[in-house]
Specification:
mainly beta, four-stranded mixed β-sheet, 9 helices, five-stranded mixed β-sheet, signal, 41 strands, about 10% helix, transmembrane
């Protein structure tokens, strides 16, 4: 059979969290036990507000964070001794999250959590409970306050906030030498369980290094690590919570460890240690100071540990030669120290390839002593160096000595030497030389931006024999002075998220200036003196760059949208130059990953590097393009007025162009009717020479009848056409057909009836061409002239 469900008393005595509400007057302070629990009497009181003896009760509940069950999570139970199980008591809940996060069964007092909770977001909730009469709503118990704590689970892995790390340790260090220290933090509750207990271990990098599992200190684990064998080590460190137990969450970081050099390798010559130099000839061609050979020893160390000093061991030839060190490549330069007139040497000659069958014949070698006498010869002066290199800063004042050359006559007479500069190598006379001392000084102001290097030739001449001269190349490097202050590499504008964390790097900045790298390309960054009290941001100086780091959390756009951070940039030149640039920081809304969501229009374009000026320029270009397009469309749509063209076949007495200001003006081009009145008077002027008449000269026709109505009909027809044409502008123009215009032969036209008064000869009309053919037939009888 199934077990029966527990009743109210059994449920109260079961192992579930129960909060017993203390009896008494509402608002009265009831004594609590030192353990945070209140006591009550078991003497059941009547009336509800009498003080009774009580047992131990709890004043806090626990709820598991990140609960993913399908039903609401059970938190605990409220109960009062006045509740007899008859549903006469109603339980109420108020405070943080009451009704939204936590709910209570008003009859049973059971408390449930409606959604999953995150301890890292809020670790506990303070609520108040009270028991009231279900009918009267009068309180049966005073209001009691209790706490619901969110019980932590291991849902956050350890994180290294400063990784990846870079460290250095000298080579050949003993075991246990300190290298660096790493630190990981866990957001879980360190006071509950092992969720925040972090243990460090090495995943990659053994057996060279070790890590302290508790402190994260990295030390050497292998002795005598040699930089010449391996210089760089990459160590992978793991931080695991739950004390490193199985099931714990882990995070990793990388440490790049470099072995620094120590002087643990001696210089070594090559296997073949015998050097052969140019021998002294019969003439004094090898003078004192002449380079006769070089030698180099190799040192596996670097930097100053690889610098070498050369010396000659006293013995054969020790007094004849000297050796110096070339600082650039650490070679030993062997030079001739003194020249003697006589040398004595013992020479040995031997076979290169011996045959062992003939060893009994004796040694296959012979020795001889030779004497060499050096004869003096008049030779040019000899410079102490094959070439000279000098450095001078630009804008150096005139007359400043930048260096000197030295030459000497090694002949027996030892003639004095005079110095000069070949004018072809210094056309602008930037330099001058002391003819006796050989010191070179500036003669003009030098500018590195114009000429960074001058190559001149110095001539040494013997006083006793000016024909004997020597030349040497002198290279003068014009050094840049640190004259330009540094500035931002680009116009930086950045943003900070409203939910930015403390110590978060929001921007990495760099700088530039116009000086050469040797005098101004190492930069340092800091806040100005007045900005040291900035409580929002600070600057963390890296290697030639810097990071902008937040000093607080809780940035709000409503409080302040823009922050302007002054940054002092100083270069490493001499004298040091510095400038102050301002970094604009905008407060923007971001998602949980720190990506930009909402911000001002300017900040949206920050990822692509568009500043305020660039945005304004883009908007102006768009507006100009729109105006050009609108004007172009308007011009295309504008209709041009068409000119009223006169038909080539339309012959009228008076042709009026209606595109003028008005008809009948003085500039109207009218046909001269005087031609019909007196054709003989202007016949020569009206004769068409560009069109050949269709017919030749014909006999004069009879005079047209004066009663012909053809001309009247023609004029009436044209008048009717003009009157019916409603589209011909101007509409108020008056065309006077009885007036031919100003300047004609006759002042006005006679009446039509006047055709009968005189007889005209219209034979000349046939000579005007085909355009006047119609007019020609109108003035003659139809029966006589029709073809």
């Amino acid at each position: 059979s199934r077990p029966r469900p527990p009743n109210a008393e059994e449920e109260l005595s079961a192992a579930v969290p129960v909060l017993l509400l203390p009896p008494g007057r509402a608002g009265r302070d009831w004594p609590r036990s030192p353990a945070g629990m209140s006591t009550a009497s078991q003497n059941g009181g009547s009336g509800g507000f009498q003080r009774v003896k009580r047992g131990w009760v709890w004043n806090q509940f626990f709820v598991l964070e990140e609960y993913m069950g399908s039903d609401p999570q059970y938190v605990g139970k409220l109960h009062t001794d006045l509740d007899k199980g008859d549903s006469a008591v109603k339980y109420t809940l108020s405070g943080e999250g009451a009704g939204t996060i936590f709910t209570i069964d008003q009859t049973t007092g059971d408390i449930h959590a409606l959604r999953s909770l995150d301890r890292e977001e809020k670790p506990y909730y303070t609520l108040r409970a009270q028991a009231v009469d279900i009918d009267t709503n009068h309180p049966l118990e005073p209001e009691s306050e209790f706490v619901i704590k969110v019980q932590d689970i291991n849902d956050n892995e350890p994180k290294f906030l400063e990784g990846p790390y870079t460290a250095s340790v000298p080579e050949m260090s003993p075991v246990g030498t300190y290298v660096t220290k790493v630190t990981a933090s866990d957001a879980d509750d360190p006071t509950y369980g092992n969720s925040a207990r972090v243990v460090y271990s090495i995943l990659h990098g053994q057996p060279y290094f070790s890590v302290d599992p508790k402190t994260g200190v990295i030390r050497t684990a292998l002795p005598n690590m040699d930089r010449e064998v391996k210089e760089l080590y990459q160590v992978l460190i793991q931080a695991k919570d739950m004390g490193g137990q199985l099931g714990g969450l882990a995070g990793t970081t990388t440490i790049n460890i470099t072995l620094s050099d120590v002087n643990d390798n001696p210089p070594r010559f090559a296997k073949s240690k015998t050097l052969h130099f140019v021998s002294i000839t019969q003439t004094q061609s090898n003078n004192v100071g002449t380079i006769v050979g070089t030698i180099k020893a190799h040192d596996l160390d670097i930097g100053k540990n690889a610098e070498i000093d050369y010396s000659i061991i006293p013995g054969d030839g020790g007094a004849m030669f000297d050796i110096t060190t070339n600082e650039h490549n650490q070679e030993g330069i062997i030079v001739l120290r003194q020249v003697r007139h006589k040398y004595t040497h013992t020479l040995e000659a031997s076979n290169a390839h011996l045959d062992p069958r003939f060893h009994g014949y004796g040694p296959f070698k012979d020795m001889a002593t030779i004497k060499i006498t050096v004869m003096d010869e008049d030779e040019p002066p000899v410079f102490t160096k094959p070439s000279y290199t000098m450095d001078v800063y630009e804008d150096t004042p005139l007359g400043i000595i930048i260096g000197a050359v030295t030459a000497q006559d090694l002949d027996a007479g030892s003639s004095p030497v005079r110095y000069s500069i070949d004018w072809k190598s210094d056309l602008d006379s930037f330099f001058e030389i002391d003819p006796v001392k050989g010191t070179i000084s500036t003669n003009e102001l030098l500018d590195r931006e114009s000429i960074a290097q001058h190559n001149i030739t110095v001539v040494a001449t013997k006083v006793k024999n000016p024909v004997q001269t020597s030349r040497v190349a002198v290279t003068v490097h014009v050094l840049d002075i640190n004259e330009f202050p540094p500035e931002f590499a680009i116009p930086y504008e950045t943003f900070v998220c409203e939910g930015a964390k403390l110590g978060q790097v929001i921007q990495v900045i760099s700088a530039k200036d116009q000086d050469l790298p040797m005098s101004g390309q190492m930069f340092s960054f800091r806040l100005p003196q007045e900005g040291m009290k900035n409580k929002n941001f600070t600057i963390k100086d890296f290697d030639n760059t810097a990071g902008i780091v937040t000093l607080r959390t809780g940035f709000r756009r409503r409080s302040q949208e823009i922050y302007r951070l002054p940054v002092v940039i100083e270069d490493g030149g001499y004298p040091a130059q510095s400038s102050t640039s301002t970094l604009t920081i905008r407060v923007c809304g971001c998602d949980s990953e720190g990506s930009l969501l909402t911000c001002s229009a300017e900040a949206i374009f920050l990822p692509v590097g568009l500043s305020t000026g660039a945005l304004i320029a883009i908007l102006l270009c768009i507006i100009i393009l729109l105006v050009i397009v609108v004007l172009y469309v308007g011009v295309r749509r504008q209709k041009k007025k068409e000119t009223l063209m006169t038909s080539k076949e339309d012959i009228r007495d008076n042709v009026i162009h209606y595109d003028d200001e008005g008809g009948g003006e003085e500039d109207t081009h009218a046909f001269d009717l005087g031609t019909l009145r007196n054709p003989k008077a202007i016949k020569e002027n009206l004769f068409r020479r560009d069109v050949k008449p269709e017919a030749g000269s014909t006999p004069r026709p009879p005079i047209a009848s004066q009663d012909s109505a053809d001309i009247q009909s023609f004029i009436s027809q044209r008048l009717q056409e003009h009157d019916d044409d409603t589209s011909a502008p101007p509409y108020d123009s008056l065309a006077t057909y009885a007036y031919e215009g100003e300047g004609s032969v006759v002042e006005s036209l006679s009446s039509i009836e006047s055709l009968n008064e005189t007889e005209e000869d219209f034979d000349y009309l046939s000579e005007w061409g085909p355009r006047f053919k119609t007019l020609f037939f109108l003035f003659f009888k139809h029966g006589d002239f029709c073809n």
